[in-house]
Design goal:
By secondary structure, the protein is α/β, with parallel strands linked by helices. The protein has helices at residues 3-8, 49-56, 82-86, 104-114, 119-132, 148-160, 178-193, 205-211, and strands at 9-20, 23-34, 38-42, 64-69, 72-73, 89-93, 166-170, 197-201, 213-219, 222-229. It contains eight helices and ten strands. The protein binds adenosine-5'-diphosphate and magnesium ion.
Length: 238
């Protein structure tokens, strides 16, 4: 890989394997994701999509091969630097993972509080992102009183409030109806337009055809190559 490419990469994996006991979840994964890429990670259930994302945000240890995030080798990151590294990521899950007994505002502001930001800045940033996801009117609500689509919009706000370089979304539309899925995809695309690298794990091929983007295809733990899917303009959502 030439130097110019290395500078444009934000995530690199070299010959990464991951096992759960004797189960081989990822086999010899080598890939390169560029800064500001908009990438789908796809493949059937059990292909290893979630495992791959979990390795990236350090929820699983890298036991074989190398993972570089923004030039940092995850196998060599001292334990005390892990929280700092995690701040490079905003993460979105299929089941939202909001805190049920905290308000919408608090769910989003906790990220900035953990990062030690000042109250005035927190107020401003949280208001800004809640407006972006059209949830500013519901900031005092508790997550269980919201629809799935609304909860996922709050989760998007939480993922982006710290202005992370990388957004990882694991089946973000897996529990949503078509309209809500569309609004989540529009938000993720907007985050990409504003400069972040966005990686979306999904088994939903229709969703990919609606948006277009680079596609990494996993099958039984192996990367089966990448392709660019052109969006279908007749049903495009952007
Ligand atoms: N914690 C775990 N313990 C054992 N096996 C696991 C665990 N998590 C995932 N697996 C297995 O690893 C493989 C990949 O899983 P996963 O990464 O969740 O795939 P995907 O997200 O593509 O559905 C599957 O065969 C799954 O059953
Ligand atoms: Mg999964």
């Amino acid at each position: 890989m030439i130097e110019a490419d290395a500078k444009r990469s934000i995530i690199r994996m070299f010959h990464v394997h991951h096992n759960y006991g004797t189960k081989k979840a990822l086999i010899d994964i080598t890939l390169d994701i560029l800064k500001n890429d908009f990438v789908f990670l796809t493949g059937p259930s059990g292909a290893g999509k979630t495992t791959l994302l979990r390795l990236l945000y350090l929820a699983e240890p890298v036991s074989e091969g190398q993972v570089l995030i923004d030039g940092m080798n995850l196998s060599r990151v001292p334990r005390q630097r892990i929280p700092l590294l995690r701040r490079k990521f905003g993460i979105i899950f299929q089941d939202y993972k909001l805190i049920a007994n905290r308000t919408v505002f608090d769910n989003v502001s906790l990220v900035l509080e953990a990062a030690g930001k000042k109250r005035r800045l927190i107020q401003k940033r949280v208001n800004g992102v809640l407006r972006l996801v059209s949830m500013e009117d519901r900031q005092a609500a508790f997550p269980p009183s919201l629809s799935g689509g609304e909860q996922q919009r709050v989760a998007v706000a939480r993922a982006i409030v710290g202005d992370p370089k990388i957004i990882l979304a694991d089946e973000p539309t897996g529990s949503l109806d078509d309209d809500s899925s569309e609004s989540i995809m529009k938000l993720l695309h907007g985050v990409h337009i504003r400069g972040a690298t966005v990686i979306i794990a999904t088994h939903d091929k229709t969703l990919i055809r609606k948006t277009g983007g680079r596609v990494l295809n996993l099958r039984q733990g192996r990367l089966e190559g990448s392709s660019i899917i052109e969006k279908h303009y007749d049903n495009s959502i952007f």
